[in-house]
């Protein structure tokens, strides 16, 4: 075959054809811009939301480092700093086990020495002053200074009560600087001392903590290494490699164990190779590509159909199919040069405008909104748009390349695979039958248009299904059992230890006299019990002196080598609201037996979904347990029931023991429990008075007894509604964008059908069909489209809801609910649209006379 250098000719021909189709170009540019807007808006929303959530989560976590090595020796600093995986290393030396000033009861303060890198990673930026240099200089955050009553002024003196390795000391400092916390709601403050301070008190800051030696609980002298890797991907693997290269292990059973973790604020840490995440992202991109393909494909199909005779003529003068494909592909790429930049700008602005709404309805409503001009947003959106244009122009290009001049003249937009059949019926000329027959001409396009319109309906129904599946009762049951829970402030900091932190009786009395009070009950806590082991005792000491159980796991024991246990005593209200898993469930019978002191309830640990960890269940109903308390009292009791331990409602909010037991208040006393150790008071309130009670408690705990605090059901209810609103908004925006594209695709389908059938309409008019009848027939075609959308949406939507949504557990607090009402609300509008669009289209395009339409080539 003779090769001819005709590249310039083909390029010029493509450009001239491009210039001759101004109307097509405008429509195509709009279509490409819309698709790019969809990609860019979603990428911007995703990137902005992730960036904002991640930043605000970093504020909650207290830093932006990738990972932290905890409670380590200062001696490994150089090894950490020089490791090839580590880009930056922050050095934080723990200089006190606790800061004990009574002013810090509700908002604790931690004291460290930090280098500049560590301070930068911890969002510490001095508002005034300088980093401490002298041994008595210190910097603090403004809220902590306010609690102390010390003005935020350089040179001010302040006194801190410190616990250092079990000994309390009082030391005076001079303020050399201060800063405003980036996250004002963070319930912890910081005091940063100087390097000179660590040198002066080097003896008491000597490193003595050993992860394998559990008898040394003091963290003073330990170092926290805040690490920044080269990037945030694969942080767990990088941490594993670093720790192993340092000669340590992350397995807490190994002798060389060292504590370390990655920053949970980084979403890349949890998104990496998670199959569900990958499938979700792939499905979202696939959905966008499909919607973009449907509209751009139709635009180029219109263009090819209108110019089909032109391409046929090109074939007669020797243009090859490959060259025709190139002409169409070049036009597509040139149109992309106009459409994609517009879509990138508009899409970014739309996404940027939506992100604040998403943040507003989230739990970070008071947080920072971060939307950076990430080049990946624009590169990714542009590449996906180009890909969509490429696959959308492929079939029209093939169609134009394959058609012969004779076929081009006869082309009527009918599927090639549909054979013409001779109809012998006498009623085939009825309008509704003609309309239905016209849809069958190009079945593939008809199906694609129906799918395109149905996608947004199904997606919207799925979003509402997920939102309606958010189970308020399941969500609240994790955090609250009653309307209110009151306790000492230290309890909410997971720092309740004994009766020293008990809730005051004056607060309980004030609550009983408060607005709308119905009923309440105390929960008592006693950590001074243990479980007597049978002989021979399976618990033994390892070579480092740590107690191990029969499975080789560390266990907390008393001086008798008995495993320690937590014992709770419950008054009637909290006892009646326990979630019993097994055993006696009649509240009256249960309380009667527990009051004797001869029975006990075993507490069972659960996962996030409320499922019991079976491997941690110690007993069966009816088993005998010998309870040993610190005063030497021993009593054999029988396990009468098993309940779920609820971290937020019926526990001390930290876990250091393997055995947890519950009983009534009377049974608690007979087992030797500390009757002064009233941990919490839970109570119910009249619904209409909950707001007043909330205001009363807020005022009382702030002004009357500032060491007391409380939590309410209302707080968690607000969080639930915010979370639900976030998903509804994001899903609604996505449904709206895809719905707009579906409507535009339907408009394009109508235009395609009407343009290619001009001669047919002229012929029908010539044989007596009126213009009104033609309009009615076209409207019926739109009605059939709408009927197809209704049928497909209800059928496919129901199947998708039952099969996918019904088996898709996105959150632990969802309970699937099958609903169709969102589709039933939207579909009537689809029917109106299906009739209105063809009517308007035929009115606009059908303005030529019969003779002019018949003469048109």
Give a quick rundown of the structure.
By secondary structure, this protein is of the alpha+beta class. Residues 211-215 have low confidence and may be disordered.
Helix content: 40-55%
Give the structural class.
alpha+beta
Terminal CA distance reads 34 Å
Number of helices: 27
Average predicted confidence as pLDDT: 82
**Share of β-strand residues:** 15-25%
Biggest beta-sheet profile: 11 strands, mixed
- In total, the number of strands is 23
Radius of gyration: 36 Å
Low-confidence stretches: 211-215
Shape: elongated
Give an account of the 3D structure.
With 857 residues, the chain is an alpha+beta fold. The chain is built from 27 helices and 23 strands. Strands 1, 2, 3, 4, 5, 6, 7, 8, 9, 10 and 11 form an eleven-stranded mixed beta sheet that branches. The chain has a six-stranded mixed barrel with strand order 13-16-21-18-20-19. The longest helix has 44 residues, at 713-756. The radius of gyration is 36 Å and the shape is elongated. The model is unreliable at 211-215 (pLDDT under 50).
Write the layout of secondary structure elements.
Elements: H1 7-20, H2 22-61, E1 67-72, H3 77-81, E2 86-94, E3 98-99, E4 108-114, H4 116-121, E5 128-129, E6 137-141, H5 142-148, E7 157-164, E8 167-179, E9 188-193, H6 195-200, E10 223-229, H7 235-245, E11 259-262, H8 268-271, H9 275-306, H10 308-316, H11 321-360, H12 375-402, H13 405-410, H14 431-439, H15 443-468, H16 472-479, E12 484-488, H17 489-492, H18 505-512, E13 517-531, E14 540-541, E15 547-548, E16 564-570, H19 572-576, E17 580-583, H20 587-595, E18 599-604, E19 624-629, E20 634-644, E21 659-664, H21 665-670, E22 678-685, H22 690-704, E23 708-712, H23 713-756, H24 758-766, H25 771-803, H26 821-845, H27 850-855
Helix pairs in contact: 1-11, 2-9, 2-11, 2-12, 2-23, 9-12, 9-15, 9-23, 11-12, 11-23, 14-25, 15-23, 15-25, 15-26, 16-23, 23-26, 25-26
